[in-house]
Amino acid sequence: MPKVITIASQKGGVGKTTTASNLASGLALRGKQVVVVDLDPQGQVAITLGLSPEPGVFNLMVGGLLLNQVLRASGRPNLWLVPGDKRTGTAQIVLQAEGHSITQAVRESFIAPWNGQPDFVIFDTAPSVGGFQEAALAVADLVIIPAATDHLALFGVKGLVETLASLVKSGQWRGQALALPTFYDEVTRQSQLSLKSLITQLEQVHFPVLTPIHRATALREATAEGKAIFEYAPTSRAAQEYAALIWKVLEEV
Description:
Low-confidence stretches: none
Number of helices: 12
CATH class: Alpha Beta
Structural class: alpha/beta
Radius of gyration: 17 Å
Largest sheet: 7 strands, mixed
CATH superfamily: P-loop containing nucleotide triphosphate hydrolases
Strand content: 5-15%
Mean pLDDT: 95
Strand order of the largest sheet: 3-4-2-5-1-6-7
Shape: globular
Oligomer: single chain
Number of strands: 7
Order of helices and strands: EHEHHHEEHHEHEHEHHHH
CATH architecture: 3-Layer(aba) Sandwich
């Protein structure tokens, strides 16, 4: 069975999709077979990889198509995508209205069908609480929590930690979690204070805080070009920082 990594936050604009696409690309460059599943109705993982959003999640989960019919090649070795779009939200509504277990549906749709491959399934999730996000957390071996180093982002981390605690209490999750500070700028006092607050907050629940990803023009430009940072600016500080994340993931799972 593949190892499952879920990228999640309960606040938008924290670098969640950037992290999902760069993590997936970096693992693929290291010879790992990787499938990214876009459970966010914004469908932006496809855009970051130079593809177009499609209702792949909807078509698989409620439209009757098979996984191999919605799987898309990324144009890169070892990396595939199950794209999403605004109909992903409709899929969640339909499954809930029909009384299905969202967690079971996610497991059966995206994890159970594989026989030996891939090495990793990576879920990108919407910041909304419950539904697909909670299901993707429940099935994860590793949860990565991007947290922008600003005051408001800390509330999103707090909410996600509470969700994970609830899943642990109910016996639905026994994985690991790592926090990834993003948009860090060491010259600003607010960024420094937010990083310290994040570390303090997560020490209480024994979630390690990783080396921050600095605010970088190269990351925005790479997204606009539909490229991973390793393709767009392989020698940049941002590429080095995401490479450190990849090595940490390989150590953990």
